[in-house]
């Protein structure tokens, strides 16, 4: 029981995640194909602390550019949700992600570099049956009101940046 109580204590890592609590606007760039210009869209995110600051729930919504049945790009409503925390037993940051464009749950584990103010997460994401994509996600804290998430996928043995999201805290 004593170990369980110890593992449930909040620490500096939970405080780091708490700095991202609030309401945000974002601009996302997505690279659909190598060499192609990125599609861009905007949205909002709200991040709240749960269970005494042990976990942080983010709700994201916006429009997303996707090819329609005719092959032309069109706006699609997008919703996503993350649950993040710091696992004292694993000594790692943990994250899960779900969204309205898939049926899978992505699970990631990561670290934080105080020198660069950057979280780095790694995941094996099942994007299609029998296809596991290695993902690296970074979240760089620029200042109290800005952070940037970058998403990299392994394609053909090489890491490729496929998404960048710039967040600005709502005033």
3D structure, described in words:
This protein has 2 helices and 10 strands. The radius of gyration is 17 Å and the shape is globular. A 10-stranded antiparallel β-barrel has the order 1-2-3-4-5-6-7-8-9-10. The chain has a single domain (2-169), classed as Beta Barrel (Lipocalin), CATH 2.40.128. It has 171 residues and is mainly beta. The termini are far apart. The mean pLDDT is 94. The chain has helices at residues 2-7, 12-18, and strands spanning 22-30, 39-50, 55-67, 73-87, 92-99, 106-113, 118-128, 131-143, 146-155, 158-169.
Q: Would you summarize the structure shown here?
A:
The chain is mainly beta. The chain has a single domain, classed as Calycin beta-barrel core domain (Lipocalin, Beta Barrel). The protein has two helices and ten strands.
Flag low-confidence runs: none
Under CATH at level 1, the class stands as: Mainly Beta
- Name the helix and strand elements from N-terminus to C-terminus, one letter apiece: HHEEEEEEEEEE
Number of domains: 1
Give the DSSP E fraction (strand runs of 2 or more residues): over 45%
Topology-level CATH name: Lipocalin
């Amino acid at each position: 029981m004593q170990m369980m109580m110890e593992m449930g204590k909040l620490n500096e890592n939970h405080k780091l995640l708490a700095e991202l609590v609030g309401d945000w606007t974002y601009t996302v760039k997505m690279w659909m194909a190598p060499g192609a210009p990125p599609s861009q869209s905007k949205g909002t995110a709200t991040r709240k602390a749960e269970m005494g600051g042990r976990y942080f729930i983010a709700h994201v919504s916006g429009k997303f550019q996707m090819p329609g049945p005719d092959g032309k790009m069109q706006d699609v409503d997008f919703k996503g949700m993350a649950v993040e925390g710091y696992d004292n037993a694993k000594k790692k940051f943990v994250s899960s992600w779900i969204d309205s464009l898939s049926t899978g749950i992505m699970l990631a584990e990561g670290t934080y570099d105080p020198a660069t103010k950057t979280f780095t997460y790694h995941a094996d994401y099942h994007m299609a049956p029998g296809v596991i994509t290695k993902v690296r996600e970074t979240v760089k804290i620029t200042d109290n009101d800005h952070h940037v998430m970058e998403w990299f996928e392994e394609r053909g043995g090489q890491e490729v940046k496929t998404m960048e999201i710039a967040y600005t805290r709502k005033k």
